[in-house]
Amino acid sequence: MFIADLLSGLSILTAAIYGFAFLTQPVTPLRAIIKTLAVASIAGVSLVLHGPWLLTSALALSAVGDAFLAGEPKKWLPFGLAAFLAAHLLYIGLFATSGTGLATMAGQPLRLFPALVTVVLAGAMLAWLWPVLGKMRWPVVGYVAVITAMTVFAFALPWPRSAAMIGAVLFFASDAILAVRLFRSGGPSLQAHLAVWWFYWAAQALIARAFLHHIA
After folding, report:
1. What are phi and psi of 18, to 5 degrees?
2. Are 105 and 155 in contact (CB under 8 A)?
3. What are phi and psi of 167, to 5 degrees?
4. Contacts for 6-12 with beta carbons within 8 Å, 24 or more apart?
């Protein structure tokens, strides 16, 4: 479909512009628009192709989160995190209703092992961050629990939708790097900025691909 292809191209273009030109630039309306369009365009593809409403809604909420986080962090950070938390919950619903169920993973090492590794890594990361989280401890615990659940549920998806498994892992990695950057690194680096952005955008694109290529 022409419109879907156009929106896909817009997503790639704006992701590249943001990643290579605006990533470390000061907050401006143009920067916020470019960042928001990168994932909002994927949401548009899902809408045009009549993708699952949970997918379209999760992508749209992620774009809203991008818009908030592109603004002044002290003012808009809580709203951005709330939007992403809601998006992760929708992804959990999407994966849970599209997969084979967590119980079936017990006899499938290719699913069970990465799921267990994800849980262990999440626990280790929380233990490492715990002393420096301060008042953010319980909000971070809640957020980590949700994104870990989202990643685990992805491993229960049918193999033809394995792109979503990779996407969930990239999403987990992006948020883990962001958490380290915020609470432990003492200052953001260009490499961290690049990893967070490209892992995040690729995660959204792969998850969408997993559920839309069958439709398209």
Report:
1. -65, -45
2. yes
3. -60, -40
4. 7/41, 7/42, 7/44, 7/45, 7/48, 8/41, 8/42, 8/45, 10/37, 10/41, 11/37, 11/38, 11/39, 11/41, 11/42, 11/45, 11/205
Q: Which residue has tokens 């953001």?
A: 188
Count of Cβ atoms closer than 10 Å to residue 121 Cβ: 15
- pLDDT of 57 > 90? The answer is yes
Residues of the chain above pLDDT 90, percent: 72
| Residue 186: HSE in the Cβ half-sphere, 13 Å Cα cutoff | 0
Its pTM stands at 0.93
Q: Angle 162-183/73-98 helices, nearest 10 degrees?
A: 150
Nearest to 161 by CA among 83, 75, 91: 91
Mean pLDDT of 61-73: 89
Pull the structure tokens for residue 89. 């919950």
Averaged pLDDT for residues 63-70: 93
What Å distances lie between residue 125 and 149, 177, 212, CA to CA?
Answer: 15, 10, 33
For 178, the token pair is 């962001």
Q: Given phi > 0 = left and psi -120 to 50 = alpha, else beta, which region is 28?
A: beta
Sort 49 into a burial class: Cβ within 10 Å, 0-12 / 13-18 / 19+: buried
